[in-house]
Amino acid sequence: MNIKKSILLRARIAFLFVVLFAIAVVVKTGHIQFVQGEKWAKMGERISFDYKRVKATRGNIYSDNGSLLATSLPFYKIAFDASLPKEEVFNKGVDSLAYNLSRFFKDKSKRDYKQMLIDARKSHKQYIILNRKRIDYQDKKTMMQWPIFREGRLRGGAIFEKVDVRYHPFSNLSRRTIGFINENDKGAGLEFSFNKDLGGQDGYAYYQKISGGIWKPVYDANNVKAVDGLDLQTTLDINLQDVAETALHKAMVQHDAGDGLVAVMEVKTGEIKAISNLSSDGHGGFYEKFNYAAAGLFEPGSTFKLVTMMALLEDTNIELSDSINVGNGEYTFYNKTVRDHEDEGLGTVTIKEAFERSSNVAMAKLVDKHFGLRPQKFVDYVDHLHLSKPLGIQIAGEPIPKIKRPGQKGWSGISLPWMAYGYGFEITPLHTLALYNAVANDGKMIKPVIVRAIKHADEEEKKFEVEVLNNSICSGETLDQLRLLLEGVVENGTAKNIKGTHYRIAGKTGTAQILDKGRYTKKYITSFVGYFPAHAPKYSAIVLIKNPRGWYQYGSSVAAPVFKEIADNIYARDINLHNPMDIKKFTKTDVLPVIRAGNQQELTMLCNELGISNHSLTEHEWVRSTRAGNGVNWKKNTEGKGVVPDVKGMTFRDAIYLLEKSGLNVFYEGKGRVQEQSITAGAYARSGERIYIRLN
């Protein structure tokens, strides 16, 4: 009996607790609803509604002539607010709308789409995604003519949410240089480097969270409209870019190489006209994975010998005609042997020949002799040429060159001799190109530029002017000798395989062993850097190909032909690089002697002595002849202060007098009268500029 009472007591107590808990729930619910209702309503609104960022339309990237390199194309997601259309409009158009949706997307039947629309209408759904496939602008225009949708956004319920997609009209052309940007504002190339300008200013819009975790845009007066990004006009020449990439790709395939790059720059402006970087994918293909030209560090190898010669010519009394003995091509410095690529060595040669044939031993011996006790002086020349610090180019990610210095850890007795021929330190290919471009540009070193202007429509917001890094890399005398050396490399030295017939190339080959885990391997970095036409440089370029496989392992046979192919194409396309063709003149030698041009007083006296009728149309010191029956007439010859004279047809004596009077540095070949001149008559004559004449 006591047990029964105990059980009943416990049951009553438990029941009482349940009743009290229920009362507490009712009281709390009433308190929340009536006392704290406003607070929780506002919180619910904050949870269901939110201001979200609306991405601005990204600016375009253009080539130098306005061709699109990158643009944002508008695509749309289509949704439907089933509560907006009037009953009559919905009932009349739902069948046709379902048919159009089924026919366009081809993923559901007309009946399925119709049922989806009717169910959404009955449920008063304000946002239902009709299809997750993105449509383009033309598709959007078509859909806006469909039944129900044609009533407009507020009466037809059609919701088109814009999504910008980045598009590259030229596909992979210069893809790494153009670059990319991801959702976290991380990326590479121009897209990343100029993200602030291209990205514009994002806006903000009111969104409501509905079932399924979907955010529906809500039109609100407080929405902030996005400001579209600015455009970039680059210096890239699309045609030249295609030529450069094609030539590089062909060489990469031919030599089964690992990585390669090419960059072409305009001498006077520093504008990069083409830049390409290719890497092997391991399956016979190549793609752009890294901008080696701007951000890669490499030992420059023999292309650095230009710096060595510059320092020697500026700081010592050596002459290019001086002799140096390189023996069998081997020389030991502090228990380390320096070797030439010539198997049997060059023996005793002039310094000019040693440079042209790229002797490592010669460069190392000369630098050790003249700078061995003062290595910092040599490094000072490297600093003077801006090779030890970033150039400050417009593409983010430029590394700091790795230059060893006397007194620092790792510097030893062999460091300076190694440095003399481009080993023991690393710089970017654009550093090397900027240096050679300075030689072509009368000693003025300018910063490479790849973006010409930032624009808003057709108006320039910012223009990037030519920026001079060094007004004079060396004296004028040294500069003339360096140009002579670089032309000699192509005419007589390691790059004579690319010697041209219509124009001259000046440059230097380079071959450096690849350093791997502190040891030099039997793999090579081959390169060629130079400028053209040599007498009046307009373009400079660098080609670098890493780890070519096969018989060809040197810059002369791997990189130099790529340079020549690009240069030939530019020469063929640019009519301003061509000299006008001579009009052949035929004379009757039995009647008149060959009289073309010269000093009028002397020619008149000669004709009078020979009994040849001659008349002067105008009185000038220097004239050209035109035939007039059995006589000749004299007309003014092209010449004057600051002008390249017309010396074709003149004797060598008269030609060299006029050319040197104009301040030109004359080089010639052959005998007799002048048949050709490398600079067109009437062009601006720059003091000290080289001109070549051919006599016949």
Features:
Cell division protein FtsI (Penicillin-binding protein 3), Beta-lactam/transpept-like, Beta-lactamase, 696 residues, Penicillin-binding protein 2a (Domain 2), 22 helices, seven-stranded mixed beta sheet, elongated, 34% helix, alpha+beta, six-stranded antiparallel beta sheet
Can I get a quick summary?
34% of the residues lie in helices and 26% in strands. It is α+β, with helices and mostly antiparallel strands.
What does this structure look like?
By secondary structure, the protein is an alpha+beta fold. The protein folds into 4 domains: about 5-50; about 55-235, Penicillin-binding protein 2a (Domain 2); about 240-575, Beta-lactamase; about 595-695, Trypsin Inhibitor V, Chain A, CATH 3.30.10. The chain contains 22 helices and 31 strands. The strands form 9 sheets. Strands 2, 3, 4, 5, 10, 19 and 20 form a 7-stranded mixed sheet that branches. It has a 6-stranded antiparallel sheet with strand order 13-12-11-24-23-22, with helices on both faces. A hairpin with a 5-residue loop joins strand 2 (about 60) and strand 3. Helix 12 packs parallel to helix 14. The chain is elongated and about 150 Å long. The chain starts with a helix and ends with a strand. Mean pLDDT is about 85; it is low at about 585-590.
Low-confidence stretches: 583-590
Instruction: Choose one word for the global shape.
Output: elongated
Number of domains: 4
Percentage of residues assigned to helices: 25-40%
The DSSP helix count reads 22
CATH classification class of the largest domain: Alpha Beta
Q: What is the terminal separation in angstroms?
A: 143 Å
Count the beta strands: 31
CATH topology of the largest domain: Beta-lactamase
Strand content: 25-35%
Mean pLDDT equals 86
Structural class of the helices, strands and pairings?
A: alpha+beta
Examine the secondary-structure arrangement and name the CATH architecture of the largest domain: 3-Layer(aba) Sandwich
Rg value: 38 Å
Biggest beta sheet summary: 7 strands, mixed
CATH superfamily of the largest domain: DD-peptidase/beta-lactamase superfamily
